[in-house]
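Appendix B. One record, verbatim.
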Amino acid sequence: MTGIMCALAGGRGTANPNSISYLVLAGGGSGGTASTNSGTGGGGGGGYLVGTFTVVPTTTYAVAVGAGGATQFSVAAGNNGSDSTALGFTTTGGGGGGSSSGFSAIAATTGGGGGGGVGTFGTGTTAGAVATVSNGAGGAGVNSDVDANLQFGGGGGGGANRAGSSGAAGATQGRGGSGLDSAITGTTIIRGGGGGGGKRTAGTGGAGGTGGGGAGGANASGVAATANLGGGGGGCGTGDTNLLRAGGAGGSGIVILSIPTASYTGTTTGLPIVTTNGANTVLRFNSSGSYTA
């Protein structure tokens, strides 16, 4: 009898109507640039957070969706992605890929997923950068000292689930690390893949990591990451032509809130995409906005 009374009074076994699930994904970093004789690193995927949170009724919760790192049009490391925030939680944008002027390597930057290292004639830093949120450190670049054919290139950017792979002398360059999957919307989607490393010579650049990462360019510019998947942009490759090539832009992030439909208020800003998944209403914020509980 006591157990029945507890259940009727909202005790054990009763779901909290104010407990919502969230996915917060930051923007990915852009790939590295190069002016000559280099293959640059892929950008890191954006930081990725999931969990549950108990909201306070009538409280407005701001949502900020981070942009992907913009393409860098000078010889400098790729740009980091911007942070995303929701429900008081913030996750970090992906790191930019390592770059090179041909004889001087420029280090990749840290981020949610670390940027990939660069391969160049120079003997400077070629290691990938560490990750601050995920397990996704960037892969190392391949230096000309270990490749007599000068087919060296960049490491893949780290993904939300896995590190980027390192470049390999004379072979396809570093693949971006894979992202993480979630079925918070009712459909399983992988997000937060790292960008592929670029390659000095023509051939095949590193593949973008599963989850929106852009592919690396082989003696070509890198490929941009997919919007709202938080992937890193691909690194670029350039030969001895003194031609500045750019890495691909990082992909923007996303914020997703899954709210029990019985307690969903319908009060939002920022025009989120509203769908249902079983007993929950799902808000997908592709840009910044808010939800009032």
